C-alpha cells in the first residue's frame, strides 16, 4: 500500500473540495522490515525515493514514471519509508543473483510474482531466479532459488548507494573489502561520514569466491583497500560467489551489519543467525513474531475488510521508523540506544511519536535518550536525523520539535532520563538557528517558526516548572506567549511570510497552547469556525486535482483556493480538531469521516500523499480510534471512531474505546458511490462516569480505562461547552473539602 501513484475512487461530498498539490503517491516500499529495526531489504531499481518502484523525483501532481515496468538490478539494504526529497537515500550493499556474466551487473530485469508480508519480501526476476528476503534487527538473509545453470553467480556490490536520479547517488568516501574463504567475507564502506560494516556468510558449497573491481575479477586477490574515492574515480567493486546450480537449488546469503566495525557485524550475524547451515526460516519466523507482538498492541473490532486492511497496514507503516541500532553509534563510544531515520520530525512529532509513546514506551524513551545524546555531541536537537554524520537540521521545516516529545514524556512520568540535564539542552536549543532572532525580537520569519519556538518555550516551561525552577519557568512561559506576534489581528490568520509546502491558511489552524486566546484573536467562536468552514470547503464546489506535470498557472489557481489539502500535505494534519476548541466537535467528525472514507484505500495507490516515515499512517490510526494526541500538552481530543470497539495496549494497561449506536460505514474502495453522513458523539462516559468534555489527559489514556461513546446520526450538544484546556483559562477553583 502506497508504493504507486494515488489511485482512489472519485471523492464525494466534502472530500471532493480538497485540493492535493504535493506528489500523489505514498512513497513507501514493500521490502522486508523489522519493527523499528536497523535493517530493511528490498528490490532495487534506483527509483525515487526508496530505490524501489518506477518513479523519478517530482514535487507536484501525479508522479512521473522513470521506468515503464517494475524491475530490479538486485536487492539492497536500508531504505527510507514514505519520504520525499530527503537527500539520503541509502540502498547500500546491493546483492544480485545472476545467470549472466559479471559485465551485465547493473542491468535491470522485470519483477514477477511479488509477495510482501511483514518481515518478508519475494519476487521472481525475469532471469528465472526466485528471490526471497527477510531481516532481523541487525541482519538480512537472502534466499535465491536458481534454475539449472553451469555458472550462476551471487554478486555483492559494496559501492552501491543512493538512487539513479540526478544528485541522488551516494559515493563511498573510503572502503575496504576482504575475502576470507569458505563463503565468508567482510567489508566497510564510509557513506555520508558513517562507517557501515557488513559481514557475509554465503551458503554455496563448492562455489568459488572472488573479489572484483570495475566488473573484472581479481583472481587470487583477498583484499581491496580504497583510501580516497571521488565521484570521478569511483568504479564499482565488491565480491562474487560463482558455481553450477541444479534446478531449484537454493543459495542463502546472510549479512550482519554494524556501524562499529566488521567484528561487531560478525557478532550481530551470529547473535541472530547462529551457526546452523541455514537461517532464513528461523530469522523470518522470529521477525514475524515480533511484528505480531507489535501489531497486537492496537486491536479493532468491526469495519469492512477494506477498512481493516487499511488500518492494519497503517499501523505497520507506523512502526517501521525510526531505526534503532542499539550500541551502534559511530559517533560516541558508549553503549546505549542510537536512533536514526527521524527523517520527518515536522510530521511525526504530531502523530507517530505519541503513538510510539503509547504502545512501545520503552522505545520512545530510548529515542529521546538518543536525541539528547545527539544534542550533547553535535550542539543541537535535530529536526531531522539520518544515518549520516551531522544532524540534518532541515531548518526550513521546523524549530524546537523535540521539545514537544520531551514535555509529554515528563508529564507522563517517564523515568530513566536525567531530566535536569534534558532541561539544560531544551533551554539552550531554543536560542539556536531561528531561535536567536525570536529571543531578541519575539517574532521570526518564516513566520511558522514563531509558532514553533513559542510552543517550544511553552513545552520547556512545563518541564522547568515541574522541576521546581519557577523563575526559569516564568521567563520561558512569558516568551511562549509571543505566538500572538505571528498573527494579523485584522484577518485572524498568520502574517504574510514564506511558507514551506503550504500557505498561511494551512498553518493558521495549528493547535497552540492557548487556543482560547487564538480564537479570540480571530473574533470569537463563530468567526473562527467560519474560517475553518471556508478552509475545509463546506459549501464549495468539487475541485480538479493536478495531473502529470501541472502547469504553473494550474498550481497557482489551486493554491489560491486557500483550501485544506487533505492528508496529502502534513501541515494540515491537526487542523480538523481545531473545531473542538470553538465548541464544534460535530465539524471535526465530518472532516475526519470524509478523510477516512475517501482519502485511503487498499492496494499500491492507497495513500493520498507521502507517508513521511509513518507520520501519515499514524494519523490514520489515531483518527480511526477516535482519539487525537496534542503533542506537548499531555492531551488527547475525542471524536467519533471508525470502529465499533478498539483496544490500545499502553504501557500501563488497556485503554478501550467502545461505542453504542455505531454504524458500519464502507470506504471508497468498497464501491461506495455516494457520500454517507458522519456519526456524532451524543454522550460519553469514562470508566462509567459521565464525560462532558471532548478531551482526556494523556496520563488517563496511558493508564488505561474504558471510554464509552454513544453515537448517533445527528450533531448533539456534547462537548460544545467544556472546551479543551488553554493557557489563558482561569485557574481551576480548589475543590471544597469537608
TrEMBL record:
Family annotation (SUPFAM superfamilies): Six-hairpin glycosidases
Domain Glycosyl hydrolase family 92 N-terminal, first and last residues per copy: 26-258
Signal peptide: none
Keyword Transferase: no
Database matches in Pfam families: Glyco_hydro_92, Glyco_hydro_92N
EC annotation from Swiss-Prot or TrEMBL: 3.2.1.-
Keyword Cell division applies: no
Start and end residues of each Glycosyl hydrolase family domain: 264-712
An example Gene Ontology molecular-function term: hydrolase activity, acting on glycosyl bonds
Organism domain of life: Bacteria
InterPro entries according to UniProt: 6-hairpin_glycosidase_sf, GH-type_carb-bd, GH92_a_mannosidase_put, GH92_N, Glyco_hydro_92, PNGase
Region of interest called Disordered, as start-end residue ranges on this chain: 712-738
Coiled coil region boundaries: none
Keywords associated with the record: Glycosidase, Hydrolase
Name of the protein: GH92 family glycosyl hydrolase
Amino acid at each position: 500500500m502506497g508504493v504507486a501513484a494515488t489511485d482512489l475512487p472519485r471523492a464525494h461530498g466534502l472530500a471532493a473540495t480538497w485540493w492535493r498539490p504535493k506528489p500523489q503517491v505514498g512513497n513507501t516500499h514493500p521490502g522486508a522490515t523489522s519493527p523499528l529495526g536497523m535493517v530493511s531489504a528490498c528490490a532495487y531499481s534506483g527509483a525515487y525515493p526508496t530505490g524501489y518502484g518506477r518513479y523519478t523525483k517530482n514535487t507536484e501532481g501525479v508522479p512521473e514514471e522513470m521506468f515503464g515496468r517494475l524491475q530490479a538490478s538486485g536487492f539492497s539494504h536500508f531504505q527510507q519509508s514514505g519520504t520525499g526529497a530527503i537527500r539520503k537515500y541509502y540502498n547500500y550493499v546491493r546483492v544480485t543473483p545472476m545467470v549472466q556474466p559479471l559485465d551485465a551487473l547493473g542491468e535491470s530485469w522485470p519483477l514477477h510474482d511479488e509477495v510482501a508480508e511483514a518481515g518478508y519480501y519475494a519476487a521472481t526476476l525475469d532471469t528465472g531466479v526466485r528471490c526471497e528476503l527477510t531481516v532481523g534487527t541487525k541482519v538480512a538473509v537472502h534466499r535465491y532459488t536458481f534454475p539449472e545453470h553451469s555458472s550462476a553467480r551471487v554478486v555483492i556490490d559494496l559501492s552501491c548507494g543512493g538512487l539513479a536520479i540526478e544528485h541522488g547517488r551516494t559515493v563511498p568516501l573510503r572502503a575496504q573489502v576482504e575475502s576470507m574463504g569458505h563463503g565468508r567475507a567482510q567489508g566497510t564502506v564510509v557513506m555520508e561520514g558513517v562507517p557501515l560494516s557488513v559481514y557475509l556468510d554465503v551458503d554455496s558449497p563448492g562455489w568459488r569466491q572472488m573479489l572484483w573491481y570495475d566488473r573484472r575479477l581479481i583472481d587470487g586477490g583477498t583484499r581491496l583497500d580504497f583510501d580516497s574515492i571521488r565521484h570521478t574515480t569511483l568504479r564499482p567493486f565488491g565480491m562474487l560467489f560463482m558455481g553450477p546450480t541444479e534446478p531449484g537449488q537454493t543459495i542463502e546469503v546472510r549479512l550482519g551489519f554494524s556501524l562499529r566495525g566488521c567484528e561487531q557485524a560478525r557478532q550481530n550475524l551470529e547473535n541472530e543467525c547462529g551457526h546452523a547451515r541455514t537461517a532464513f526460516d528461523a530469522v523470518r519466523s522470529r521477525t514475524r513474531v515480533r511484528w505480531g507482538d507489535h501489531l497486537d498492541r492496537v486491536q479493532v473490532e468491526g469495519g469492512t475488510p477494506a477498512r481493516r486492511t487499511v488500518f492494519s497496514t497503517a499501523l505497520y507503516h507506523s512502526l517501521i521508523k525510526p531505526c534503532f541500532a542499539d550500541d551502534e553509534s559511530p559517533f560516541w563510544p558508549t553503549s546505549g540506544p542510537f536512533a536514526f531515520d527521524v527523517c520527518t520530525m515536522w510530521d511525526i512529532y504530531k502523530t507517530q511519536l505519541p503513538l510510539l509513546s503509547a504502545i512501545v514506551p520503552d522505545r520512545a524513551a530510548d529515542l529521546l535518550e538518543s536525541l539528547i545524546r545527539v544534542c550533547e555531541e553535535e550542539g543541537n536537537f535535530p529536526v531531522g536525523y539520518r544515518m549520516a554524520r551531522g544532524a540534518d537540521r532541515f531548518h526550513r521545516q521546523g524549530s524546537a520539535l523535540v521539545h514537544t516529545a520531551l514535555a509529554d514524556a515528563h508529564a507522563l512520568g517517564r523515568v530513566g532520563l536525567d531530566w535536569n540535564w534534558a532541561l539544560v539542552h531544551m533551554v539552550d536549543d531554543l536560542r539556536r538557528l531561528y531561535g536567536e532572532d525570536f529571543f531578541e525580537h519575539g517574532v521570526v520569519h518564516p513566520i511558522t517558526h514563531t509558532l514553533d519556538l513559542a510552543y517550544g518555550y511553552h513545552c520547556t516551561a512545563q518541564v522547568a516548572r515541574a522541576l521546581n525552577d519557577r523563575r526559569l519557568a516564568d521567563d520561558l512561559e512569558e516568551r511562549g506567549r509571543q505566538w500572538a506576534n505571528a498573527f494579523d489581528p485584522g484577518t485572524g490568520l498568520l502574517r504574510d511570510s514564506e511558507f514551506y509546502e503550504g500557505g498561511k491558511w494551512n498553518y493558521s489552524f495549528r493547535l497552540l497552547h492557548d487556543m482560547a486566546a487564538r480564537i479570540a484573536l480571530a473574533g470569537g467562536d463563530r468567526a473562527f469556525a467560519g474560517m475553518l468552514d471556508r478552509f475545509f470547503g463546506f459549501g464549495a464546489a468539487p475541485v480538479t486535482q493536478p495531473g502529470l506535470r501541472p502547469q504553473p498557472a494550474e498550481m497557482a489557481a489551486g493554491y489560491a483556493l486557500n483550501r485544506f489539502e487533505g492528508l496529502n500535505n502534513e501541515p494540515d494534519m491537526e487542523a480538523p480538531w481545531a473545531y473542538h476548541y470553538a465548541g464544534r466537535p460535530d465539524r471535526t467528525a465530518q472532516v475526519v469521516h470524509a478523510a477516512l472514507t475517501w482519502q485511503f484505500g487498499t492496494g499500491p495507490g492507497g495513500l493520498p500523499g507521502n507517508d513521511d516515515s509513518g507520520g501519515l499512517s499514524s494519523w490514520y490510526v489515531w483518527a480511526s480510534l477516535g482519539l487525537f494526541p496534542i503533542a506537548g500538552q499531555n492531551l488527547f481530543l475525542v471524536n467519533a471512531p471508525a470502529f465499533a470497539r478498539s483496544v490500545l495496549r499502553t504501557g500501563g494497561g488497556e485503554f478501550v474505546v467502545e461505542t453504542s449506536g455505531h454504524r458500519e460505514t464502507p470506504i471508497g474502495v468498497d464501491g461506495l458511490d455516494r457520500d454517507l453522513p458522519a456519526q456524532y458523539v451524543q454522550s460519553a462516559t469514562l470508566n462509567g462516569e459521565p464525560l462532558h468534555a471532548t478531551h482526556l489527559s494523556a496520563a488517563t489514556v496511558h493508564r488505561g480505562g474504558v471510554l464509552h461513546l454513544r453515537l448517533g446520526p445527528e450533531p448533539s450538544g456534547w462537548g460544545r461547552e467544556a472546551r479543551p484546556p488553554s493557557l489563558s483559562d482561569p485557574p481551576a477553583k480548589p475543590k471544597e473539602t469537608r
